[in-house]
Amino acid sequence: MMNNERIIPEPTNEDLNSTSSLEKNCSCGSCGACGSCSVCDSCGSCNSCKSKPTSTEMIKVVGVRFKPAGKIYFFDPDKKWIKKGDSVIVETIRGIEFGEVVSGPKFINDDEIVTPLRKVLRIATNEDKLKNEENRVKEKEAFETCLKKIEEHNLSMKLVDIEYTFDNNKVIFYFTSEGRVDFRELVKDLASVFRTRIELRQIGVRDEAKMLGGLGPCGRPMCCSSHLGEFYPVSIKMAKEQKLSLNPSKISGICSRLMCCLNYEHKVYEENMKELPEVGDKVGEKGTKRKGIVIDINPLFKTARVRFQKEDGTEEMDELEGSKLFVIEAAVKNLQAEEVDLAMLKELED
């Protein structure tokens, strides 16, 4: 079996002392012995190397992903010439895995790493890529077999996906169920068929949507299956602060949970709302004698709609920037009614 590993040679003293010798092998226009042109890890004599962090707290890693839009895991490149887009073989807690490098070599703080940092075993060979494709075919066959076994055991569970580890040391079956499922007999049955370690993993509706994919309410491919590496907390409060309708059909995705995109602009709304009065507040306009009640706010544009009382007893509506208003008297909130409304929508957050 041919090995596509490219080991980066260490520069000799003669190379380091000879600028012309280094320049001959340089593909970045520097010295030829810097990490950017992948000739070596360090020479200490070029701007690229001098800009590298010297602190022992910085570690060189590559980011590897095992599934499209999956979580990115860090591995030690181990002086191999690895670049973004390469397929690599790595060792994980699940066994030997086939992954794709989605972020090239870079230095990060050691507190961002889950220890122990494992090394990249090798850059994937053609044989490795062929075996990975064969595993994908096996997964489809195993899916059909598992469906039949679930029906035979009359279990209340929905099979979502199947995954073979690269070395075929384990087969993982992902499923959803409304409650707990006693699948011990199913595991024994599957083990006798596949002759390897079997793991059945129950997942939630968000993970199911990520694995299956589809189109979101906006008509575009779902965020979770197209580019989100992992899920982030989403709450009803986010929808409320963004002045969205709290109708579940308007703010939930196909997984029947709150849409992940509610989190994208949340920080902007949160910061802008600090500069605005709240609905119901009695406010005054700076530089004038006008006073009124806040009817509505627009956090995105940092404006508030105020109902002013004129001297002749009539009213007028005006939309002003939050910076032009000051609060005279804060509104009294009906916290009990608000808690009841939010409690009815809490299940969308799970």
Give your account of this protein's structure.
The chain has helices spanning 13-17, 19-24, 47-50, 126-152, 184-194, 205-212, 223-226, 236-241, 248-251, 266-273, 335-343, and strands spanning 58-65, 72-75, 87-92, 95-109, 120-123, 158-164, 170-176, 197-202, 282-285, 291-298, 303-309, 315-321, 325-329. The chain is of the alpha+beta class and 350 residues long. The protein has a 5-stranded antiparallel β-sheet with strand order 2-1-4-3-5. It has a 5-stranded antiparallel β-sheet with strand order 12-11-10-9-13, with no helix packed on it. A 3-stranded mixed β-sheet has the order 6-7-8, sandwiched between helices. Strand 3 and strand 4 form a beta hairpin. Helix 4 crosses helix 5 (184-194).
Beta-strand portion reads 25-35%
Query: What is the gyration radius calculated from CA atoms?
Result: 29 Å
Please work out how many helical segments DSSP would assign: 11
Strand order of the largest sheet: 2-1-4-3-5
Largest sheet: 5 strands, antiparallel
Order of secondary-structure elements: HHHEEEEEHEEHEHHHHHEEEEEH
Terminal-residue CA separation: 48 Å
Instruction: Write down the overall geometry.
Output: elongated
Rounded mean pLDDT is: 82
Any chance you could write out the topology, listing elements then pairs?
Layout lengths: L12 H5 L1 H6 L22 H4 L7 E8 L6 E4 L11 E6 L2 E15 L10 E4 L2 H27 L5 E7 L5 E7 L7 H11 L2 E6 L2 H8 L10 H4 L9 H6 L6 H4 L14 H8 L8 E4 L5 E8 L4 E7 L5 E7 L3 E5 L5 H9 L7
Parallel strand pairs: 7-8
Antiparallel strand pairs: 1-2, 1-4, 3-4, 3-5, 6-7, 9-10, 9-13, 10-11, 11-12
